[in-house]
Amino acid sequence: MKSIAYLLGTPLLLVLVETASADTATIIDPGIRGSNGISVARDSVPEDGDFSDATYKAFKGFRKDTLYSEDYYYQLRLVPQYKTTFENCNREPGIVKFFQRLFGTSDAALVLLKASISYRYASGQSVAYAQDASPATLFMLGKGTDPGTMNPGNGCFLDVTNSPTYPLFRYAGGGSQQDYDDFSLRFTIQGGEVVKSNLLSNIYKFFDRVSAAASFVPLGSVAAKAVSDSSKEMDDAVSNALGRDDRFTVGPIYIKQHDRLRIRVPDLIGNSGSIVLYPRKYGSIALDTSDPEINAAHVLGRSELAGRGCDAPKVVSNDCSKSTTIRDTVRAADSVKAVDSKLPPSIFQPNDPEHHKYALNLCVEIKKFLRENLRLSTLDEMMVRWAILVDSQMMNALFDDRVNAIAQASSTTVDGLRTACWNKGDDETVRGVVVKSLKKRLVFNSY
To answer: How many CB atoms are closer than 10 A to CB 444?
Structure first.
């Protein structure tokens, strides 16, 4: 992968090529012109640790280490792993040398790392989290302030943005050679000698205001405009504060499913701290892994499930319709209502012969809606069907004397009804993941 670098808007005669070792690939070398001592490197993400959650690990283990398209979700994570304040720069010779080497000054200086981030959800289609016109500031490194008041002084600061929460998307099968299911980043490094040190406190305040929104701010929202306005005010203050505003841009850089980017300032901090960007993987959002028991009410009450029907642009623009519960969402689906125009709150009515004839088609349409329209993972689609069946008593009916009448009214066999509604594969998967791997008690209402 090659990326062109820019300085002050003019392309340098420089092409950055990722140089790889056994475990890492360098994207931005801290020693090259314009990098301002910042290092960006790529390495692979291990499947354990905090890079995937317990439900992903459990499902992957059940599937014998093989997961496919639609089996899991992923989410871009930006994790700051340090936040350091230096009380007095002049007592730290390494810090003085760092700024002296970069900008020829030991008095006041400033370095910022910004990133525009886009999510590629389909081939040739992407949506921006942080746009080129208003990139997110990941960290700010400065000298020439009092660390307590941020007024002019001898202190230094290294301030890192809060860890944002980006949207969760279902994996669609994009691999290392496909141009989707990944994230595109463009880094801008800005820095120089500060000639108006009184502006540093304003810059610091703007940065705190922007990074205080720790959650992802949807584009088009009122909060997004406020963040954008603060970012612009901060950019203006930075430009006014710097005698020479050097900007170095590199990108696009892509983060694939098994990638991790690590950002450091090695000459200043060594390898003791970094910012890490990576896709974290989740097998389920229907399961509360903190609870020892999983029952239908838990699953149906998970607020994260109800809004899964939005596509990527709507998620980012905050243009998603809200439903109270996942069951309300299912009941409101046109394809489900077309089966039974008088759906009861429970959806299924195994004790009402008038509704038996709808059972087979309801099972078929619900599964299809959960998979295709709500974009639930394989495990979540099973868990929601399980919860609806258990809560309506239809699960018990599938395995007691009522099943024959329901199958006959639905014009199918008992095996056909069970295959559509809750088959052996469904049962083995849910029990294998929830009971055996996650060690949870699964309440099936005695079937």
So the answer is: 17
Q: What pLDDT score does 61 carry? A: 94
Q: What is the pLDDT of residue 9?
A: 33
The per-residue DSSP string of 227-249 comes to HHHHHHHHHHHHHHHBSS-EEEE
335 vs 353: CA distance, rounded Å: 22
Compute the distance between CA of residue 59 and CA of residue 62 in angstroms, rounded to an integer. 5
Model pTM?
A: 0.85
Taking alpha carbons only, the member of 252, 243, 296 closest to residue 443 is: 296
Amino acid in position 220: G
Helix (H, G, I), strand (E, B) or coil at 282: strand
Q: Determine how many CB atoms are found less than 10 A away from the CB of residue 342.
A: 9
Residues 6+ apart with CB under 8 A from 403: 397, 414, 417, 418
Distant-in-sequence, close-in-space partners of 141: CB < 8 Å, separation ≥ 6: 110, 111, 112, 156, 157, 158, 265, 268
Q: Please state, in angstroms and rounded to a whole number, the distance separating the CA atoms of residues 142 and 155.
A: 9
- Distant-in-sequence, close-in-space partners of 394: CB < 8 Å, separation ≥ 6: 348, 350, 359, 388, 421
Look at residue 134 in the predicted model and tell me its pLDDT.
Answer: 67
Residue 117's identity, in one-letter code, is I
The predicted structure's pLDDT at residue 426: 97
Q: What pLDDT, on a 0 to 100 scale, did the predictor assign at position 4? A: 31
Give pLDDT, residue 411: 97
- Report the chain (447 residues): mean pLDDT per 10 consecutive residues: 32 35 74 84 73 93 92 90 61 70 76 88 85 74 69 73 81 90 90 81 76 53 58 81 80 89 80 83 93 93 83 73 81 94 93 95 98 95 97 95 97 98 97 96 71
* Cα separation values, 265 from 42, 45, 349, Å: 15, 21, 63
26 phi, psi to nearest 5 deg: -80, 125
- Answer whether 447's CB lies under 8 Å from 395's CB: yes
Rounded to whole angstroms, the Cα distance separating 295 from 324 reads: 18
DSSP 38: -
The residue among 226, 244, 129, 242 whose CA lies nearest residue 186 is 129
Task: Record the tokens describing residue 364, joined without a space.
Answer: 């078929």
Q: Tell me which residue of 19, 36, 21 sits closest to 187, measured CA to CA.
A: 36
Task: Give the pLDDT of residue 6.
Answer: 29
**How would you class 78 by CB atoms within 10 Å of its CB: exposed for 0-12, middle for 13-18, buried for 19 or more?**
buried
d(CA 127, CA 109): 35
| pLDDT, position 11 | 30
Residue 198 to residue 330: CA distance in whole angstroms: 58
